[in-house]
Amino acid sequence: MSGTPRVIPNVEACIDCGGCEVACMRTWELPEESDRIGVVTHNEGTAGSRFDDGETAVPMTCFHCAEAPCEDVCPTDAISRDDDGLVQVDEDTCLGCSYCAWACPFGAPQFPDEENSTGNAGVMDKCTLCAPRLEEGEEPACVSECATDALVFGTPAELSEQFRENRSDDLFDGDLEQVVFGNE
């Protein structure tokens, strides 16, 4: 695989079933309130064609951005890239300051354990893109479990055409697309 892999939403396919959320929780044995992936509904309850002016469900997770704002603002360097270019968090270094949550335009950083905190917000948690599964040659759990193919996995080069075909580019203005994909 060339380039840092990503998962992008296929906004034409998501039916808000929550299968991606269940797959993530089951794979990582996470509590029900965990939000490593979630489905955001735009124009909820509105009639009309999908995404233009009608209700549209969009699966959202960490995009492991090429120009990750969360990594840039972390004062302890707890957020960094692994050898595969994935944006990961070192739980032992995270202060719980939540600068990353403020910086991320997609809401990926979460703070599920506020009661056991070092800083104000506990230790940050987010999608790891199922790095151990990737090492075994498997797709992330959310992608492999999605019944409607609403999550697409690949490198930026592999995803660029699909990104536009499935109307995911409607979610990103030029600046956000640059943050996610950079020059990859």
Automatic annotation (TrEMBL):
InterPro entries, A to Z: 4Fe4S_Fe-S-bd (IPR017896), 4Fe4S_Fe_S_CS (IPR017900), ET_IronSulfur_Cluster-Binding (IPR050954)
Q: Which GO terms describe its molecular function?
A: 4 iron, 4 sulfur cluster binding; metal ion binding; oxidoreductase activity
Which domain of life, per UniProt? Archaea
Keyword Plastid listed: no
This chain's protein is named: Fe-S-cluster-containing dehydrogenase component
Q: Which PANTHER family match?
A: PROTEIN NRFC (PTHR43177), PROTEIN NRFC HOMOLOG (PTHR43177:SF3)
A matching Pfam family: Fer4_11
